[in-house]
Amino acid sequence: MASQSATGPQAQQSQERLQAIKALDELASRLKNILGSLTGSITVDKKSMAINIEVDKSKLLDAAKILRGLGFEHVKSLTGVDHMETGIIELVIHIGSYRKGLRRFMVILRTKLDRKDPRAPTLINIWPSSELQEREAWEMFGIVFEGHPDLRRLLLPEEFEGLWPGRRDFAIVTRKAGEVEEPWK
Amino acid sequence: MEVDSKSISTQAIEELSKELIQQRELGVTEEGERLIELQIGPTHPGSGHMRIRVWVDGDIIVRCDPDIGFVFRTIEKLSENRIYMKTIPLVERPSLLDTTPMTIGYINALEKLMGIEPPPRAKYLRTILAELTRIASHLYGIGIFAIFLGHSTGFMWGFGDRELFVELANQLSGARITYAYVIPGGVRRDMPQSFPDNVEKALRYFEKRLPDWYKMFLNNPVVEKRLREVGILRKNDAAKLGITGPNLRASGIEYDVRIADPYEAYDELDFMVPVADEGDAYARALVRFEEIKQSINIIRDALRKMPGGDIIHPQIARMFNPLMKKIYEESRRVKFPGVFASLKPPKGEATARVEAGRGEALFYLVSDGSPKPYRFRWTTPSYRNAILFKYLVPGHRLADLPAIYGSIDYFPPEADR
Amino acid sequence: MEGGLVFIGDLDLTTRKVLRWLVERKPLKDIVEWATAFSLWPVHLMTSCCGVELGAAYAPRFDLERYGSLPFVSPRQTNLIVIEGTLTRKMARVARITWEQMADPKFVIAMGACAIDGGLFWNSYNVVRASEVMPVDIYIPGCPPRPEALARAILLLQQRIRKRGLARHDLEMIESPIKRIDGSK
């Protein structure tokens, strides 16, 4: 009952998935060859069909240009992940492609930025689809994208007081289990 | 269809991007006094929950700036303070029209972290509900599009026909639009006995209705005049700007997440993806109608191929107490076991993507082993399409703005999350 | 007699007093209230996701136009504002400006759990309560409330207008102790 039956469409499906995983591995090794010394590490995430590429901040634009030339032409998501203990904000960019052979896979480009002064080069010249997402990343985490022509608030009102709500130290009200709020008191 | 068969050199990329950025800076410099800034604000029937700031020179729009964030409810931050199960209704609320693909995406990411897969019957049930909501969402989009153009019959018909599918979803899950039907490991309820017959009746009624829709809306000479050659989005621009959904398919790129990266039961079902070439507003409306037809085929196919069996993963079914087990066996309803309150997936991260009614949604979950997510990031299709206001609207007349807005089917609460 | 003027008092003021006395008397008062009750026109302000159910309520299946209610374009020509769903800070300022632009007598319906006390998003940093922005007449619970619930709210408002006489134009501006967003009164 737990395992899937190995007949009919289920078998075809797992066959197709195995082929996709093989193609993913091939793509990962190809990227390793091409990017070579630019990256820190390349790992494959089989469940999410994605390739994680870790780069240093100075090499971000070069790696981005190479990926753009290979056919990954749009950014699906650009955001930061805040790690307070190590003092790092990690810039995580999900990149995808509309080309036939590359549609199935995603590339996740990561950089580590210093939490006290996070700055990164803007990717708007390489990927125009990251324009609004960079504005949101600035608004939420404080990451300054150098070269962005129009870095202003996107989602919050201009007179909002409080900086960088996306970071983990921006506290919001929480309720413990069993606690009931009584606004009529 | 390939996007661009020539290899792109970095030089060429930079020139193309400069061109796009220059296009945006039109009209701000010397001729600044001739321009009038209009704010088409939230209290306007043609603006939705957002403000569109346009700079007009006479009647031609020179620059357009979308002012979004009026429905920004900080769901990403809220989910860091709640357990995994409580994020399911949060994820449903922004895109209130097609809620099921969003919950499917979130639960897929969670199941990838946990390492379980739902049983086949649950996959088919999720697929059926997702397609029902997709039809309802397209009809809402077409209805709002019609009222923007002034075609109030289209509005009434769109909402009236949508009630059919909302009622069907009500029979399956118990609520009109916010179902919370998908849970980690399966679905919450099995379908009632009369459900396949009702679905067949509804689909047959709607198929008879579609020719009337075509006569009234798509083949209407007034609508054609307003929509043809308006808001043309070329294939290269669509790929570069990261547009998703029927807007992309109306520009010639045949990309659909249900085929590119199949999830749930889509790889076993038989359907096609409609593509148009012109890229104007008329093509986008046409693609939406064709997608409704394809969704009807998917539902029929799924009902035919529906397997029997469990609707919840056996690992979770093992944790039922005797009362829950009795309810499950008698009426096939799942009551949540206590483990859901302290669900702790292992440390790691997962990404999932789904095809919602308006395009592709991406879910990125980072977990650190505690019952609350460490970081939850999701991008909705309307958020990615918001950039079209900046690049597609300039150059048109002011009266074309509702036509373009309605044709890209931008839904502000979904974009603001 | 010769054609001279006879001074009988300020004609303008006298006419006004007579008219006011006439309107307060039984037949005209009832007619005015009946007319107001059956022409509650909401303004086209979509605040949040309950707008979907508002749209469905004015559509074929749950037609609310049979109660005389028609969504209309401008705040100066309508007398009802329906706050559907969550009020964020940006939208609260717009809603308040719209409410102030409307002419007396005007009514407010707060629709949904989010308008009552924040609902599902109670601890978000960008959400305000509807009662802090404007005085509310009717609350509708639900998430989202069914269109029939909205119909019941309009019927309830109609009964209230006709019983309590809320349609009079000479009501003084009620100084309710509500806080404005920017702190001024």
Task: Please outline the helices and strands.
The complex is a heterotrimer of chains A (185), B (417) and C (185).
Chain A lengths: L8 H27 L3 E7 L4 E6 L4 H11 L3 E10 L4 E9 L9 E9 L4 E3 L9 H11 L2 E3 L39
Parallel strand pairs in A: 2-5, 6-7
Antiparallel strand pairs in A: 1-2, 3-4, 4-5
Chain B lengths: L9 H15 L11 E5 L10 E7 L2 E8 L7 H4 L8 H6 L6 H16 L5 H30 L2 H22 L8 E2 L2 E2 L7 H24 L2 H7 L7 H7 L4 H4 L7 H4 L20 H24 L9 H4 L4 H10 L16 E9 L2 E9 L7 E5 L1 H5 L2 H5 L8 H8 L3 H5 L1
Helix pairs in contact in B: 4-5, 5-6, 5-12, 5-17, 6-7, 7-12, 12-17
Chain C lengths: L10 H14 L1 H12 L13 H7 L22 E5 L2 E2 H13 L5 E5 L1 H5 L9 E2 L9 E3 L6 H18 L21
Parallel strand pairs in C: 1-3, 3-5
Antiparallel strand pairs in C: 2-4
Low-confidence spans of chain B:
1-8
Quickly count the domains of chain B: 2
Number of strands of chain B: 8
CATH topology of the domain at 41-157 in chain C: Rossmann fold
Q: How many helices of chain C does DSSP assign?
A: 6
Shape of chain B: globular
Structural class designation of chain B:
mainly alpha
General description of the model:
The complex is a heterotrimer of chains A (about 180), B (about 425) and C (about 180). Helices cover about 25% and strands about 25% of the residues of chain A. Chain A has about 180 residues and is α/β, with parallel strands linked by helices. Chain A has a domain at about 10-120: Beta Polymerase, domain 2, CATH 3.30.460.80. In chain A, helix 3 links the parallel strand 6 (about 120) and strand 7. Chain A starts with 8 loop residues before the first helix and ends in a 39-residue tail after the last strand. Chain B is mainly α. Chain B has a 3-stranded antiparallel beta sheet. The model of chain C is unreliable at about 170-180 (pLDDT under 50). The interface of B and C includes residues 90, 97 and 413 of B.
Which terms summarize this structure?
heterotrimer, A: 185 residues, alpha/beta, Beta Polymerase, domain 2, 3 helices, disordered N terminus, B: 417 residues, mainly alpha, Cytochrome-c3 Hydrogenase, chain B, three-stranded antiparallel beta sheet, 18 helices, 8 strands, 11% strand
